[in-house]
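User: Sequence for Nitroreductase below. Tokens please.
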Amino acid sequence: MVLTVTARRTVSHYGHRAWPLLLLDTGHAVAALRVAAGRAPVAWDAGGPLLAAAAGLPEARVWRRLWPRTEPEHPLAAVLLTPPGRRPPAAPLERWARQGPGEPPLPSGGPPGAPLPAVQAEAERVLTALTARTPPGPERWDHRPLPSVAAAPGEAAERRSATPPLPGVPAPDGLLTLLRTAEAAGGPDLRWCAAVGDPEPCLLRVTPGAPERRQGHPGALAGLAAGDARPALAAWAAGQAWVAGCGAVLLASGCPSGAAAGQVRRAHLRAGHAVQLAQSAAARLGLPSRPLGSWQRADLGSALGGPRRREWIIHGLALGAGRTERSTPRR
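Assistant: Structure tokens for Nitroreductase:
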């Protein structure tokens, strides 16, 4: 399954914040598919030309010339779903790409040649740049299993984001479980920490090298910086004031200034993937949670102090300590 995004509707609501949100949402979708399928490998780094050909689509950079008055789809990732008892095919993206193009979608845009709004044109330019090349060598699939605390397939339809406020700091064991889940699902491009409120506001991370069997040991969480980062996080999270009063915020940072396009794309996709699985783990622990994807030049390096190093926050998960309520699944 090749996952693609179209920019227009998201841009109309979120403006310049649209393209990071599209990447994060794709990562969430990848995690949901993997939970539903049990154990499905992911192609995080396949280039746009290969993914587009595998989906029977033209490349985004020539889309409007070939299929005028239709909205370009930007392919970002692929998930390999194999029927039980069957071996996955070798190089499936290349195999699908040989099937040739599909039919164009129904027209959805304005008259041919009409200029795009500037913010939509910029979002499409960024999405095209992030997927422009196909990496050299054979296609690569990530076969690492899901974290053991990921939700069972039947639970995915029941998971809902909690409505703010989210008071109460989760217990250390719960924070440790969520941080470990996010680290396992996020990959090497991301760093994870948790900003907590009472009783001692600080940033926490997993103690480097802490073995898995010490999950319940207080030493498995280490202080990263003292002080309450939540007011700054509320301002950076598109001015969502309620964030300053939540119990804790799980944070993914990465993409330092000057990061290559492939790292930017992969980090956002995997951050969405990790937060989706951390939210499933939070639900199992009875912790209300809500993803935070709209970040405005959120420099975690400034919160950590010391030498100035821009470390951009990519994604977050706000947490409380109350029990979650099961809600009726939407149609």
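Strands lie at 2-5, 42-43, 74-79, 191-196, 202-206, 221-226, 248-254, 289-292, 312-319.
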